[in-house]
Amino acid sequence: MKSPHDPNAEAQTTAAFTRIELLAVVAAVSLVASVLLPALGREISRDSRVFCLFRMNRLAQAMTLYAQDSRGWLPPNPDDGNTTPFWNWVGGQAGPGGAQEFNPDILRDPTHALLTPYLQGDISVYRCSMDQRMGSYQGTNSTLKGTKVPAARTVSMNSAVGTLPAFGGKSPVYGPWLSGSHNDAVSATWFCYGRMSDFVRPGPRGTFTFIEEDASSINDGVLCCVGPSSPQKYTWIDWPATYHDMAGGVSFADGHAEMHRWLDTRTRIVNGVVSPGTQPGNPDIDWLAQRASALIVPPAN
């Protein structure tokens, strides 16, 4: 114990924080945090956007390379989530409760993820880092059994793009849901794109190929949406992701990618609760419809 006459006693006393000083320090730290954390959040969001643009661009380029190796034909894109080898650009059901929701292995398998060879096996391209889903590993790697892993996939392909596996990948998809209701007949109303040369309208730069899909909407490898019509039908079938401050990554047939900002608050799925599918006047539905396909016979002016 220090004696009252210990020369270090005064220094020891003055070095201690008083309650008021401690409260002042806490207040100062809180103030600094209130200033820095939003900025840090913006930096994280900005970084994730840059990476997502990179991801979406790589997917678009991978499909171009696939087509070059397939005499111009695009990969199969059925809307059934099948896991038959070579029958799907990406196999399985990746949505909540799906057998491949937390199975990254299927994306490494070039017989079930046909673009993976053109991605140098980098399966991170299939997933947006802003998707917060975590779950029990569903693959076959024994060392990962019982562990928690991120959701495997957040990206889907335009339902009007790709080929039908039942025809050996030599026939365009039917464009299910472009009419607003599912059909299994060749569309006589909208363009569907089975080869790179098919992107005549609205053209390669104006036709989206891949898009980030909301975790509450994603299932198979297809994002289905209504096509352009006159008057426009304002109905959601599948829902785009809004992870990046109401924006999401979209890639196009010419190989470029962009971060598109959605304008209508009804487009955003909050806490897994989907808004009514019919949303009159929603400009986001119109934007997507105009870039999903084009009318074979344009409406008369």
Describe this structure in words.
The protein is of the alpha+beta class. The chain has one domain (19-292). The chain is 24% helix and 9% strand. It is built from four helices and seven strands. It has helices at residues 9-15, 19-68, 105-108, 283-292, and strands spanning 134-136, 148-150, 155-158, 208-212, 222-223, 247-252, 257-261. It has a five-stranded mixed beta sheet, with helices on both faces. The relative contact order is 0.14. Mean pLDDT is 88; it is low at 7-15 and 39-44.
Key words describing this protein structure:
single chain; 301 residues; alpha+beta; five-stranded mixed sheet; 4 helices; 7 strands; 9% strand; globular
Distance between the termini: 96 Å
Strand order of the largest sheet: 5-3-4-6-7
**Radius of gyration, in angstroms, nearest whole number:** 25 Å
Number of helices: 4
What average pLDDT do the residues reach? Answer: 88
Shape: globular
> Structural class of the secondary structure composition?
alpha+beta
Largest sheet: 5 strands, mixed
**Strand residues, percent:** 5-15%
The helix content is 10-25%
Structurally, the number of domains stands at 1
Order of helices and strands: HHHEEEEEEEH
Q: What's the total number of strands?
A: 7
Low-pLDDT sequence parts: 7-15, 39-44
